[in-house]
Prior knowledge:
Radius of gyration: 15 Å
Strand content: 35-45%
CATH class: Alpha Beta
CATH architecture: Roll
Order of helices and strands: EHEEEEHEEEH
Oligomer: single chain
Amino acid sequence: MGRPVVHWELMSMDPAKLSVFYEKIFDWKIQHMPEMNYRMVDTGGEGGINGGIFKPEREGPWPGNMMFYIAVDDLAAYRNKVVAAGGKIHVEEQQVPDMGAFSLFTDPEGRMMGLWQSKQASS
């Protein structure tokens, strides 16, 4: 049996600014925990994965980068939200036969992320 993803983290140069970006687009609830130098992220989605945003104590570069896909019901609308909040679209829309479609964007720090619209959501 496989092992599920249970948490994710974004390392950020400016966690406060990055938190506002994701709250604004996806309505995530982000709680700042200054005593831990951490922001807990509640994505609010049933069956979704929550995570965190933080600034590492040591200087960058920080090894690795991550990309995950965020479920949306309207790719075009969310691409517009990304751009309005300071992100950049890299892939407008790419169909995945019999599954759905995705778009790729970078947040204001250049981190690549994906938007996913399942075939059921687009029907």
